Known about the structure:
Blueprint: E1 3-7, E2 14-20, H1 30-41, H2 49-52, E3 57-61, E4 63-64, E5 67-68, E6 73-78, H3 99-106, H4 112-118, H5 123-138, E7 143-151, H6 157-169, E8 176-183, H7 199-208, E9 213-218, H8 229-232, E10 236-239, E11 243-246, E12 254-255, E13 258-259, E14 264-270, E15 281-283, E16 290-292, H9 303-326, H10 331-345
Antiparallel strand pairs: 1-2, 2-6, 3-6, 4-5, 7-8, 8-14, 9-14, 10-11, 12-13, 15-16
Helix pairs in contact: 1-5, 1-9, 5-9, 7-9
Bound molecules: ligand EPS.
Amino acid sequence: MLRYITAGESHGKALMAILEGMPSGLKINTDFINHELWRRQQGVGRGKRMKIEKDTIHVLSGIRKGITIASPIGLLIENKDSSIEKLPDIVCPRPGHADLAGVLKYNFTDARNVLERASARETAIHVAVGAVCKMFLAEFDISVSSRVISIGGADNEEAMVDAVAGAQAEHDTLGGIFEIIVSGIIPGLGSYTQEDRRLDGRLSHAIMAIPGIKAVEIGLGFGYADKRGSQCHDAIYFKKEKGFYRKTNNAGGIEGGMSNGEDIIVRACMKPISTLLKPLDSVNIITKKQAKATVERSDVAAVESAGVVAEAVTAYVIADAFTDKFGNDCLSDIKSFFKSYVKRLA
Ligand code: EPS
């Protein structure tokens, strides 16, 4: 089992995570983690904050001489903008953001207390955790990637750039759809035996929990609804050199809550960013008078970044399911077990 927890506010001193359960013997490449952090900061529609920050990882514990030693891995990213104590109160909650439900729940008179933690800035540290998980999975030739399918309804790069520029000019924001692909996967990760062991449930949970995500589908997803079974289930074939395989992958690599050996394909929809420069109606939480929502510095769109974050949480879920099956103690033992499993499947 793997687990991790994060801490940190958007404009606090730093973002932190403790990742537990990584086996001993894994080489940690901090350049790779920094590259993943850099990827999250790119993309059409990102705001001014991305010009301020140059997210850089500090690995505080869990490695010695660049190799994991099975103890919890402490990760930290410093915020260059750490102005949390000086930032103004927010009393007109932004529709779509955590602001209103957060102040009601925690009895605040300032939504700043909510948004500082609810901000998608926190996703940076998930990317660092995911980068460690990707390094682990790479030992078994498993890779996780993503691609943007559409932004604001536009589905080619030029149109996406234009759509974002158009929204920006009108002080508006956009969302979109991205896809996650897990390649090199073996059959048998996850399990049908208990609902919380189902890989599709675990992946959907992790991706749906990324700020701004409103829908997740696996494989054909909603497309199954208007198909007959005979048109959409992936027929099974066998070749000596290949083992069991499919000619189609509508299942998105998961059947019965387990990986079936085909690529895992997950798509998710991100809603438009909730901070609008031309704000929607809101209510002042102190005076209860009608007002316009607070305007904060933000992005116009962050679909590509959300894809990078989803890669990270997917890598974590796959690594978690992988260690459930093959163990957590030491990389060489896991490799031996993995080899014998692959041999048995053949
Ligand atoms: C983000 C940092 C934030 C926002 C954005 C994502 O920085 P700031 O609030 O200082 O401009 O750019 O946050 C949101 C979209 C949000 O809803 O809170 C980041 O690092 O990704």
